[in-house]
């Protein structure tokens, strides 16, 4: 990464550059799923504590993003999707990204422990460590299972939110974790299928690079099939209900159809039409997760009126 660290700066970094360093799009999903985990828990939380908890979880997510950008600056510079990020673009120095990541890591964990409880803080600390060290530094460049195992990092936020409210872990929080964990591989593999040579140029052993597109298509279908019962099964827990069940059945039926269409694609045809199916499934997968957690929230909102739950 020395070549990235040596990039000349074209001027001082703007506030927006530092915001981008925290991966705001990823942070928004972390905030939402953590908030849902906190709000659907069976224990009420004072609004001030809830706000502080979500704020520090968001800072922890931003810390993970900054540390990831520091470490991955060399491969980010090669990939079209990431070369405009602050560090490879020369807007923020690598050392600054590291400093921001470490500083926010310590601040977010300590303040979450003080604001909520130390179990939630420990889960946040482990999440930052898992994303920055286990996934970014180890798995991402060493195994095609990088997304499968590394997906755990993005699955912890609802568990952290639940722990902020209850001080513990439960079947419900584990199911929310499992929903995100099982969703991550087909979501990213659909992206990898139409990113073409980006991962191979960057030396990232994504499944499309190590095993080919046909194997990747097989894996997308398999993981989507495995995801469906996890998603639908959550309907029959204390955080589920008829509204969630209807949403889960509809979303998973569509996702399965999309995965089936990806699986049966001919590579030559896919090249000719610009991977339209893969792009459509990837875009849908973004709404898929949001709508599941929105349905959890809807059930929790309706319960006081006797309308949610079973």
Automatic annotation (TrEMBL):
Keyword Methyltransferase: no
Location (main, coarse): membrane
Coiled-coil blocks: none
Membrane topology: Multi-pass membrane protein
Reaction equation(s) it catalyzes: heme b + (2E,6E)-farnesyl diphosphate + H2O = Fe(II)-heme o + diphosphate
Pathway: Porphyrin-containing compound metabolism; heme O biosynthesis; heme O from protoheme: step 1/1
Membrane-spanning intervals of the chain: 26-43, 49-71, 92-112, 118-135, 147-168, 174-194, 220-237, 243-263, 284-302
Domain of life: Bacteria
Keywords: Cell membrane, Heme biosynthesis, Membrane, Transferase, Transmembrane, Transmembrane helix
The protein's role, per its UniProt record: Converts heme B (protoheme IX) to heme O by substitution of the vinyl group on carbon 2 of heme B porphyrin ring with a hydroxyethyl farnesyl side group.
Misc: Carbon 2 of the heme B porphyrin ring is defined according to the Fischer nomenclature.
Protein name per the record: Protoheme IX farnesyltransferase
Upper classification of the organism: Bacteria, Pseudomonadati, Pseudomonadota, Alphaproteobacteria, Rhodobacterales
């Amino acid at each position: 990464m020395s070549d990235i660290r040596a990039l000349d700066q074209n001027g001082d970094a703007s506030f927006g550059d530092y915001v981008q360093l925290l991966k705001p799009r990823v942070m928004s999903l972390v905030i939402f799923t953590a908030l849902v985990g906190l709000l659907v828990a069976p224990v009420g939380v004072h609004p001030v504590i809830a706000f502080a908890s979500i704020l520090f979880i968001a800072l922890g997510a931003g810390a993970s993003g900054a540390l990831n950008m520091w470490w991955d600056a060399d491969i980010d510079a090669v990939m079209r999707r990431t070369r405009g990020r602050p560090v490879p673009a020369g807007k923020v120095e690598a050392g600054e990204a590291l400093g921001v990541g470490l500083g926010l890591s310590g601040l977010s964990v300590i303040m979450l422990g003080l604001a909520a409880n130390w179990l939630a803080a420990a889960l946040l600390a482990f999440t930052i460590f898992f994303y920055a060290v286990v996934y970014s530094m180890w798995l991402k460049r060493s195994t095609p299972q990088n997304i499968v195992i590394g997906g755990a990092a993005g699955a912890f936020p609802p568990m952290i939110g639940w722990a902020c409210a209850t001080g513990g872990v439960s079947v419900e929080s584990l199911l929310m974790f499992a929903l995100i964990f099982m969703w991550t591989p087909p979501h990213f593999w659909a992206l990898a299928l139409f990113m073409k040579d980006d991962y191979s140029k960057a030396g990232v052993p994504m499944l499309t690079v190590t095993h080919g597109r046909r194997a990747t298509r097989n894996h997308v279908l398999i993981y989507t099939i495995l995801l469906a019962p996890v998603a639908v099964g959550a309907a029959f827990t204390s955080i589920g209900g008829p509204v969630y069940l209807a949403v889960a059945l509809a979303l998973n039926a569509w996702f399965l159809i999309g995965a089936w269409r990806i699986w049966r694609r001919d590579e030559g045809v896919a090249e000719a039409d610009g991977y339209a199916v893969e792009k459509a499934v990837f875009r849908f997968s973004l709404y898929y997760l949001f709508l599941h957690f929105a349905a959890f929230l809807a059930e929790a909102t309706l319960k006081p009126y006797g309308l949610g739950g079973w």
